[in-house]
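Researcher: Let's run the pair from yesterday's discussion. Sequence first, then tokens, for each.
Model: Starting with the first of the pair.
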Amino acid sequence: MHTATTTTQPASVRTPTVRFQRALPGRFAAVRDAVMDAKGGLQSLGLTRHPAAWYATHTRCYLSEDETTGYAVTHDGELVSLFSAGVPGAGRAAVLDAVFRGATSLWCFDGFLPRYYTGLGWRECERLAWDDALAPAGWPYDVHGRPDVVRMAWPERPSILPPAAAVAS
């Protein structure tokens, strides 16, 4: 089990200790749906909800011990389906844990998320214009408009993770 923590950030943005463990795809999908349905809003609309069979074939899934935060990493390193309703900073812990477990890219909607991920060390590498034909069902255009879709990459030498020898697996 890996614990996502960092020691290089100021105390005001310190990442909480959150333990993540492998999860069966069916359990991951069920927890993801329950958490996101309870949260609602843009976070729920912007999260791709693949079926459990897709996760079983294409990813490794992880849940926090309290099952309030989770993510999956595809076999080619894409961070997908990250969700969090845990303690403040649990989403940050999930992102860092995903990097530790091999995440090297992700897609997100323009706005808050690209700035958030940039603050964690990710870099924008591609930007696509919004396409109404690919919009999530129920997308509230009147509230969120038509944001670009941004692909981000993790730099080759992560500077915000502790050395591998210092991380307990």
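Model: Moving on to the second of the pair.
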Amino acid sequence: MPHATAVAEYRQVLRINSGDTKLQTLAHMNLAGLALRGQGSAAEAIVEYRQGLRIEPDNAELHFGLGLALSLQGKHDEAIAEYLEAVRINPSGAQFHYFLGVGLRLQGDGDGAARQLRDFLRLAPNSGVSAEMIERGRSILAELEKQ
């Protein structure tokens, strides 16, 4: 499905299903993903993630996606806050711990980063994350432990 058609379809879902919060949340999440992939627009993705969070504030995936988009804009403090919220809501989300760890490392919090990466590596085998992501997590943790 071409990008413009997909965007139009999700916008239609938002108009037609204003009372269905699950569909609304999914439509905003998909529009955010399309904004990032189709146009590389982190700003547009941020708007969609925030609209989704107004509907479903305890959605870990929306917080995580918002964190990724904020990180793309260089707003690392805000991204870390969103990753923290994703971990609070869903502590078993391996990818949330990974990105929180990477964000904390970028901010100079090596101890916090190491804790998150250890949690990531503990959760990763049963989470469906890629072998490359697991190896990268191990590599970053090893670097942190040398310091």
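Researcher: Give me one sentence on the second I can quote.
Model: The helical segments are 3-16, 21-39, 42-55, 60-72, 76-89, 94-106, 110-123, 131-146.
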